[in-house]
Design goal:
There is one protein chain. The chain is built from eight helices and ten strands. By secondary structure, it is of the alpha/beta class. The strands form two sheets. The protein has a six-stranded mixed sheet, sandwiched between helices. The longest helix is centred in the C-terminal third of the chain and has 27 residues. The chain is globular, with a radius of gyration of 20 Å. It binds adenosine-5'-triphosphate. The site of adenosine-5'-triphosphate has 12 residues, from strand 1, strand 2 and helix 1. This is ABC transporter related. It comes from Methanoregula boonei (strain DSM 21154 / JCM 14090 / 6A8).
Length: about 280
């Protein structure tokens, strides 16, 4: 478990000769073992936050602390899952897992890497696909391997950027439940920063939801999700409190979307003003 502290994170990108402020003084404290989701309109800077916390990108100003230590680059204390699976295409499911485990634990007995890879394949129900290459697996199966890899590396922090965004709705449900079960039964509960566009997904998974607004990206509101764990999606969706929170989230996001649209339409269009 770890705390994550985002302190006044701003990010300015150079874009077509001018500067674009993607994030403006984002502050967020994430508690030990907490599951927090970032939700907000496209382009509000959710992925940029994941990049900054993972250490792949340095902020223009501000800093991230993990357990009070500043992030200066990528590290084994953070595991990531992205929407695009990020598996090595020339390795089988087993080899992808084994490679990651070996890379993270180079000094251990090599036989233990095999056993560990087999164990995690089984945990996500893919032992029969041990020798399959990623291009022969469905999107859901590939994402199961990515998740197994993240759990097998045993980092303190999980960073997940729309991990289920490319999946159909049934696969998405399966993956959400799989993630919840693996996460809640871990001895040391991981601290999770999760990006999603899906309000129901955020409500099912999160302890808190941070709503972002665009241009530049900021955290507009942070909402506590009061439902006890373990959560059951069948009963959760029928609770009046769930419906009220969902309605609130949707109205905030909808306002953001309309504001964004207004801003776009105010910008001059090359060749004249729209009628
Ligand atoms: N490398 C880059 N160079 C220039 N601009 C960038 C770069 N990366 C991101 N941006 C800009 O920063 C802003 C935030 O991008 P980001 O990808 O973090 O948004 P997002 O909220 O994750 O969007 P989405 O939900 O569509 O994935 C956008 O306006 C984007 O165009």
């Amino acid at each position: 478990m770890a705390t994550i502290e985002l302190q006044d994170i701003s990010m300015v990108f150079g874009l077509n000769g001018s500067n674009h402020e993607a994030l403006n003084k984002v502050c967020l404290h994430i508690r030990e073992g907490e599951f927090i989701s970032l939700i907000g309109p496209s382009g509000c800077g959710k992925s940029t936050i994941i990049d900054v916390v993972s250490g792949l990108r340095a902020p223009t100003t501000g800093r991230v602390l993990i357990d009070d230590q500043p992030v200066t680059g990528p590290g084994t204390d953070r595991g990531t899952v992205f929407q695009d699976y990020s598996l090595f295409p020339w390795m089988t499911a087993f080899e992808n897992l084994r490679f990651a485990i070996e890379h993270a634990n180079g000094k251990r007995d090599p036989d233990s890497f095999d056993a560990e890879a087999e164990r995690f394949l089984k945990l996500v129900g893919l032992e029969k696909f041990r020798n399959a290459y990623p291009n022969t697996l469905s999107g859901g199966m590939r994402q199961r391997i990515s998740i197994a890899r993240m759990f097998s590396l045993d980092p303190k922090v999980f960073l997940m950027d729309e991990p289920f965004g490319a999946l159909d709705s049934l696969n998405r449900i399966y993956m959400q439940d799989l993630l919840l079960r693996l996460w809640t039964r871990g001895e040391k509960r991981k601290t999770v920063l999760f990006v999603t566009h899906d309000v129901d997904e955020a409500l099912l998974l999160s302890d808190r939801i941070a709503i972002m607004s665009p241009s530049p990206g900021r955290i507009k509101e942070v909402i506590e999700i009061p439902f006890e764990r373990p959560r059951c999606r069948k009963t959760l969706g029928a609770q009046p409190e769930y419906l009220a929170l969902k309605s609130h989230l949707l109205s905030v996001l909808y306002c953001e979307m309309l504001d964004d649209l207004d801003r776009q339409l105010e910008e001059p269009v090359a060749g004249g003003t729209p009628a």
